[in-house]
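re: ur msg from earlier - yeah i can do the nicotinamide-adenine-dinucleotide complex, just paste it... oh wait u already did. ok heres what im feeding in:
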Amino acid sequence: MKICIIGSGYVGLVTGACFADLGNNVICVDKEAVKIRKLKAGIIPIYEPGLQEMVRRNIKELRLTFSSKINEAVRKSEVIFICVGTPSKDNGDADLSFVENVSRQIALSMPSYRLIVEKSTVPVHTGEWVERTINIFNKRNMKFDVASNPEFLREGSAIKDFMNPDRIVLGVKSKKASDILTELYKPLNAPIVVTDIKSAEIIKHASNSFLATKISFINAVSDICDKSGADIVEVARGMGLDKRIGKDFLDAGCGFGGSCFPKDLSAFIRISEKLGYDFALLKEAQKINEYQKKLLVKKIEEMLWNLPKKTIGILGLAFKPNTDDIRYAPALDIIAMLSREGARIKVYDPEAMPNARLALSRLGAAKGVEFCKDAYQVSKNSDCLAVLTEWNEFKELDFRKIKKSMRQAAIVDGRNIYDPVELKKIGFRYTGMGRR
Ligand code: NAD
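and the outut:
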């Protein structure tokens, strides 16, 4: 099929590359000309395992091209995926201005029937707005369908997730739209849920909100473990073996972040409010998540007594491992809080340093932060190490060497990746999240 992807970020680029790899002709569009220029040269602006090879392979096979011209791409493609950002506004609403903008441009460029698919995460009723907008600007009265096909890939394992989804959700209004999308996804051999557009939109918001709530639930239990002397890792293992609960998303830690959970939770709370429902459960999940970051700072303080002039070594900045994405990463808030307390900060992340440097300066929290070349440099003369992202390379550090170079041997394990007994044996003071 001839496909056009509008918005070549994490989701758009992966979607475009994967559809091309499955044999389709794909044009990826973005409004950022620099990004398109780089992509044309096979340079990927984000870190995502396997993506560069896949993009380059498909450019070479002439199945994947890049453009900054929406109108041209829409003219050449039968199916158009909207993959632009839907960030949070200050009040928590999803900002849908990019989606509206793109819908208008699509309407102005359609030369014949087009299937327009929202892949961006959007609140319920967005499909109706997209259709209305296209109708207004569709001066030549071209036939079209709007569909919703929310994306469930995770950064860090995006290609694997896209190619092996647990399910594909297709929200459609016509058989034609359903047939086209079913055919497109056929090679993936995954269960397909064909439903109406509103239900598809809610499936995505409800899924992310449920997962975020599951994390906040285990984080709340971890606080009970802290207070009672139980071990959250043991508790989660015992809970997770119950098939009705499942072990995924039961890792206690210093909070979730990323470009999806925080914003989707806010957007779902807001749209529920507009529809007349106070989703207090989700508000509590948000509150617990904010508390976890403060709790981590409190744990460092408990280790060190006073924070001013103490040096805190931060291991991990990205909101999760295997990505350079620092959007809403707990590390940013935690570093800002520690700076305000007068602590000196050293940081290291395998992939997210450039993005973090930029984000911290925007927050006004970069001053005094030392960016290091590895975990060992971070440890040197630090009073406490805090693990904020569970990168594999942090799991295998030489802690005897680290202990020698630290001013005080103290660790706050914000992701529970270490064995407390082992570290204590080496001579560290250790505290995790819900385990000591
Ligand atoms: P992103 O910010 O990485 O990418 C969005 C891209 O859209 C940017 O490159 C931007 O320049 C481009 N864009 C914006 N307006 C445009 C326009 N008018 N014309 C052309 N390009 C335009 O965002 P993302 O992380 O890929 O997320 C996109 C959507 O997918 C969001 O709704 C998000 O919630 C959802 N989603 C994201 C993930 C994830 O893991 N990142 C997973 C599932 C769903």
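cool cool. The pocket of nicotinamide-adenine-dinucleotide is lined by residues 6-12, 29-32, 35, 70, 83-86, 98, 101-102, 120-121, 151, 153, 155, 259-260 (CB under 6 Å). ping me if u need the other ligands too
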